[in-house]
Amino acid sequence: MELYTDAYYMNEAFKMAKIAFEEGEIPVGAVVVCRKKIIARAYNQTEKLTDVTAHAEMLAITAAANALGSKYLPECALYITLEPCVMCAGACFWSQLGEIHYGASDPRRGFSQISQYLLHPKTKLSSGLMAEESKQLLDHFFKKLRN
Amino acid sequence: MELYTDAYYMNEAFKMAKIAFEEGEIPVGAVVVCRKKIIARAYNQTEKLTDVTAHAEMLAITAAANALGSKYLPECALYITLEPCVMCAGACFWSQLGEIHYGASDPRRGFSQISQYLLHPKTKLSSGLMAEESKQLLDHFFKKLRN
């Protein structure tokens, strides 16, 4: 896979989602990229941390801010395998992320179910990269959970 | 002040907001109460932690979950001096908080500007306790910041 492309970064986020899957977490993964470099990687850890706020995006935003020493991330791009929820969209807003690329849509809890305007007006948004793989991983997880 | 009343708990949250003020943070404070006991206290620490996700509610929800060893907080009440933003309302949703009592409304960034339905349907909501004091503290902070 060609380096430094959206597809490459989303695949890195997907690798994080697979780690979440292996650890019994709802499989969602994220990376944050700044000037082509991945400065944060995270996956959902709500079970391990016993903390509903430990979504992949939240952890990735916190880690990216630590890496840069800045609360605001206008020069950063977030790659996340699933559409952010309202909480995570709110965090994206506050961080003023430059770009958000999400994979699968979340028709139940995705922020766009509430409003397209939860993100910062300067944030560029795209979706659909590796959507099918990300959705299949989630479906597989919930199917396993039910059995 | 009478113990174990909403006014008492909100005053404890307000004490947290005053600590935030003294530390140069936007002065918002929170406590989480479970079976009459305060199990978490927190104030906004976005500056100190260089982290936009470090709102008082987020820190309080994480701390309360740690204290109880449970991600979900249906038997808990959150007292927060300012109306939660979208991010924090999303966290409140996921935690299934039993009650939320907020002080001052936030006409710019309060979740109710977006939708009244961001909270969990089982969460009881009230507002207005110590609203004037909480707003004055915020106004004082921003006035000082501008000078």
Automatic annotation (TrEMBL), chains A, B:
Positions that bind Zn(2+): H55, C85, C88
Alphabetical keyword list: Hydrolase, Metal-binding, tRNA processing, Zinc
UniProt cross-references to Gene3D superfamilies, sorted A to Z: Cytidine Deaminase, domain 2 (3.40.140.10)
InterPro entries, alphabetized: CMP_dCMP_dom, Cytidine_deaminase-like, tRNA_aden_deaminase
Reaction equation(s) it catalyzes: adenosine(34) in tRNA + H2O + H(+) = inosine(34) in tRNA + NH4(+)
Bilayer-spanning residue ranges: none
EC number: 3.5.4.33
One of the GO biological process terms: tRNA wobble adenosine to inosine editing
Pfam families attached to this UniProt entry: dCMP_cyt_deam_1 (PF00383)
Active site residues per record: E57 (proton donor)
Keyword Hydrolase among record annotations: yes
One GO MF term attached to the UniProt entry: tRNA-specific adenosine-34 deaminase activity
Entry cofactors: Zn(2+)
Cofactor stoichiometry and binding remark: Binds 1 zinc ion per subunit.
Role according to the record: Catalyzes the deamination of adenosine to inosine at the wobble position 34 of tRNA(Arg2).
HAMAP family for the chain: tRNA_aden_deaminase
Oligomer status and interactors: Homodimer.
The protein's name: tRNA-specific adenosine deaminase
Taxonomy of the source species: Bacteria, Pseudomonadati, Bacteroidota, Cytophagia, Cytophagales
